[in-house]
Design brief:
Elements (H helix, E strand, L loop, with lengths): L15 E5 L28 H13 L4 E5 L9 H9 L5 E6 L4 H11 L3 E5 L5 H8 L4 H11 L8 E6 L8 H10 L3 E6 L17 H12 L3 E2 L9 E4 L5 E5 L12 E4 L4 E3 L8 E2 L1 H5 L4 H13 L5 H6 L10 H6 L5 H4 L2
Parallel strand pairs: 1-2, 1-10, 2-3, 3-4, 4-5, 5-6, 6-9
Antiparallel strand pairs: 7-8, 8-9, 10-11, 11-12
The chain binds S-adenosylmethionine and iron/sulfur cluster (2 copies).
The site of one iron/sulfur cluster has 12 residues, from loops.
Length: 342
């Protein structure tokens, strides 16, 4: 742990910051944005790149050494490589981006040149028709083109994030791993979470880590768990031929005990848990001229008071339903997964 790292009530350091650069998206994934209409953050509230950079400096001074740029769809934010360039100059251990891949091929070289370290692409299916049903858009070929552009641009450490859902894409686990080999990218299967925005979530749709391992074991034979070397949420596994993959069992076996991540929305709200219903407005004090030290002490105080264990608490609920009702989401877009950045 870095000497400057602050810790919360459960001695979890603040090391990982996910920066959402926009709440808008060009897809409408059923598990994230299933509704026909959304309330967007007012444009005047969006942090400028300079403001994001300043806040990142404050977070870095408190121990953050991993930053992930996300959204909504981050590539909808104009001139994103400029922001990446600013973040790349901060000496981070890891600077990554999560994207749906639709606009990636056109931007990949500029992102690499700007200093982006790694790319994660969300891909739930290898089938164009199924992709259309799942994302409510016909963009599958662009996503595949985006994935094909990553390695030629010089990136390594690429990941594919797949939300695995029972009866939806659970027959494609092997196909996705096989495709991942060709990218090359390590596939991470994410259990379907009942986060804000997942208004059509139901426990019946959750494909558990145990189920995933059973299905993959049937096809590949022995699957060996790998030792987790950091606080990354994915448990990693190895197939007999050495191919690796991950499972993020956020729903059935949450990893809150080691959670070192927090999230900054595009309009400067800071959330210390994916399930937190309240965040801290960092934009207003910044715009009101708060000093670096004042911002540091605001963030320090909130992190030191952090007790969030959202997914663990959800696990204890009986008769689980979607976490936030639709009417509440409409009155508070900050509760949406696409606003928080996943
Ligand atoms: N638009 C980009 C993308 O899709 O990669 C970045 C933002 S998206 C909110 C970040 C991640 O959240 C994606 O990998 C997506 O699969 C995941 N996600 C969204 N809703 C989810 C849910 N209900 N359960 C599990 N993962 C979810
Ligand atoms: Fe899908 Fe990402 Fe857009 Fe959500 S933000 S709808 S996960 S592409
Ligand atoms: Fe961290 Fe909250 Fe997710 Fe638990 S539910 S892993 S505390 S963000």
């Amino acid at each position: 742990m870095p000497a400057n790292a602050i810790v919360d009530r459960f001695r979890r350091p603040l090391r990982n910051l996910r920066i959402s650069v926009t709440d808008r998206c060009n897809l409408r994934c059923r598990y994230c944005m299933p509704e026909a209409e959304y309330v967007w953050l007012p444009r005047r509230d969006l942090l400028t790149f300079e403001e994001i950079s300043t806040l990142t400096d404050v977070f870095v001074s408190l121990g953050v050494d991993k930053v992930r740029v996300t959204g909504g769809e981050p590539l909808l934010r104009r001139d994103l490589p400029d922001l990446v360039g600013m973040l790349a100059g901060k000496g981070l251990r890891d600077l990554a981006m999560t994207t749906n891949g639709v606009l990636l091929a056109d931007n990949v070289e500029a992102l690499r040149a700007a200093g982006l370290g790694r790319v994660t692409v969300s891909l739930d299916t290898m089938r164009a028709e199924r992709s259309k049903t799942l994302s409510q858009r016909s963009t599958h070929s662009s996503v595949l083109a985006g994935l094909a552009s990553i390695a030629p641009a010089g990136f390594t450490g690429t990941k594919i994030d797949t939300v695995a859902m029972r009866g939806v894409n659970d027959d494609e686990l092997v196909d996705l791993i096989e495709f991942g080999r060709t990218v090359p990218a390590e596939v991470r299967f994410i259990e379907y979470m009942d986060v804000g925005g997942a208004t059509t979530w139901s426990p019946d749709l959750v494909l558990s880590r145990a189920d995933m391992l059973a299905r993959l074991g049937e096809h590949y034979g022995t699957i060996t768990p790998l030792r987790n070397t950091d606080a990354a949420p994915a448990d990693r596994f190895e197939l007999p031929d050495g191919t690796t993959f991950g499972i993020v069992s956020s729903t059935t076996q949450p990893f809150c005990a080691t959670c070192d991540r927090s999230r900054l929305t595009a309009d400067g709200m800071w959330f210390r848990c994916l399930y937190a219903v309240e965040g801290t407005n960092l934009r207003d004090p910044l715009r009101d001229g708060a000093s670096f030290e004042e911002m540091r002490s605001l963030i320090t105080g909130k992190w030191e008071a952090r007790e969030d264990r959202g997914a663990v608490e959800r696990l204890a609920e009986r008769d689980r339903m979607p976490f936030i009702p639709l009417a509440t989401l409409k009155s508070n877009p900050h509760l949406e997964m696409h606003t928080r950045g996943g």
